[in-house]
C-alpha cells in the first residue's frame, strides 16, 4: 500500500469509526427507526446510546486505555552525555487558527514545545529537528512546521540552526522524511519528543525504519500511580476515549500494514 493510499484510507476509515461519531450515528439511526414506526427497535438503540453515554460520563474508560500507552516507556529517561540529535514530532499545532489569527496557536500538547526547548538548551551542539507537515486532507498548505517555526522564534530559540521537515502527513512519514533529511548513523543517540500516549507507535515507526531513538514522553493524561477516580465528566472522558482509540487503532493499522514490526512496540521491540 502506497503512503498516499494509506493516508487517505486511514482518514476516511477513522472518520466513521471514532467513538464520538459512532455515538451520534447510532442516536440518529435510533431516531430514524422511531420516525419510521419501528418504535421498539428505536427504544433499544437509543437506550444503548444513553447507557454508553452514562458509562463514559462516570467511568474514565479513556484513561484506562491510555494508561498502558503512557507507561510503556519511562518518563524523564536518563540521557547520555552526548546527544547527536533531538526530534520533535508535529501535532501540537493548531494550524487553521494560526492562519486565521496570524499568530502561532498551539493545542493541549504544548508540553512537547517545553520539553524540546529544554533539550535544545541542554544539548546546543545536537541536531535540532522538527518534523511535521499537514495531516489535513483538504488543507496541505497548513503546515505544522510553519507554526512551529513561529513558536520557536517567539520562545527565543535560534531557528536558523534547526531543521524543519514539512512534507509528512502522519507518524510514519514523520520518521521516513526526517531520516532522509539527516541521515542518522549507527550508534548515534537521538532523542524523540512527543506525547506519551503517542510514544509507542512513534518508537515502532523509527525502529521499523532502522533508526533507534531514545523516547522522551511528555504531555501525560494519566497518573503515575495509575489510580482512576470516578466522576461526572462526559466531555473530558469522551475526549480521552477518542485519544485512546486513535492510538490503539493506529498501532493496529501500522502493524498490519508493516509500518511497525510489533503490535505494541517497546524498548525491546525488534529493530
From TrEMBL:
UniProt domain DUF218: residue ranges: 84-248
Protein name per the record: YdcF family protein
One GO-annotated biological process of the protein: Gram-negative-bacterium-type cell wall biogenesis
Residues passing through the membrane, by range: 21-38, 44-66
Organism: Desulfobacter latus
Domain of life: Bacteria
Keyword Signal in annotation: no
GO CC, alphabetical: plasma membrane
Keyword Transmembrane helix: yes
Alphabetical UniProt keywords: Membrane, Transmembrane, Transmembrane helix
Pfam families per record: DUF218 (PF02698)
InterPro entries from the UniProt entry: Cell_Envelope_Assoc (IPR051599), DUF218 (IPR003848), Rossmann-like_a/b/a_fold (IPR014729)
Gene3D superfamilies: HUPs
Amino acid at each position: 500500500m502506497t503512503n498516499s493510499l494509506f493516508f487517505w484510507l486511514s482518514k476516511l476509515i477513522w472518520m466513521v469509526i471514532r467513538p464520538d461519531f459512532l455515538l451520534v450515528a447510532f442516536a440518529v439511526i435510533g431516531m430514524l427507526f422511531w420516525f419510521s414506526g419501528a418504535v421498539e427497535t428505536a427504544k433499544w438503540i437509543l437506550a444503548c446510546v444513553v447507557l454508553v453515554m452514562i458509562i463514559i460520563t462516570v467511568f474514565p474508560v479513556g484513561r484506562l486505555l491510555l494508561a498502558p500507552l503512557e507507561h510503556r516507556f519511562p518518563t524523564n529517561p536518563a540521557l547520555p552525555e552526548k546527544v547527536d540529535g533531538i526530534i520533535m514530532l508535529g501535532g501540537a499545532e493548531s494550524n487553521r487558527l494560526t492562519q486565521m489569527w496570524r499568530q502561532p496557536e498551539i493545542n493541549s500538547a504544548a508540553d512537547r514545545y517545553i520539553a524540546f526547548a529544554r533539550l535544545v538548551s541542554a544539548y546546543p551542539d545536537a541536531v535540532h529537528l522538527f518534523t511535521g507537515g499537514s495531516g489535513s486532507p483538504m488543507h496541505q498548505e497548513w503546515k505544522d512546521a510553519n507554526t512551529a517555526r513561529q513558536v520557536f522564534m517567539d520562545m527565543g530559540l535560534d531557528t536558523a540552526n534547526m531543521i524543519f521537515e514539512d512534507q509528512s502527513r502522519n507518524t510514519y512519514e514523520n520518521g521516513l522524511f526526517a531520516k532522509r533529511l539527516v541521515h542518522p548513523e549507527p550508534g548515534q543517540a537521538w532523542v524523540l519528543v512527543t506525547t506519551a500516549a503517542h510514544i509507542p507507535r512513534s518508537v515502532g515507526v523509527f525502529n521499523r525504519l532502522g533508526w533507534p531513538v531514545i523516547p522522551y514522553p511528555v504531555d501525560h493524561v494519566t497518573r503515575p500511580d495509575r489510580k482512576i477516580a470516578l466522576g461526572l465528566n462526559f466531555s473530558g472522558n469522551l475526549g480521552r476515549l477518542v485519544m485512546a482509540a486513535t492510538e490503539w487503532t493506529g498501532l493496529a493499522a501500522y502493524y498490519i500494514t508493516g509500518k511497525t514490526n510489533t503490535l505494541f512496540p517497546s524498548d525491546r521491540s525488534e529493530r
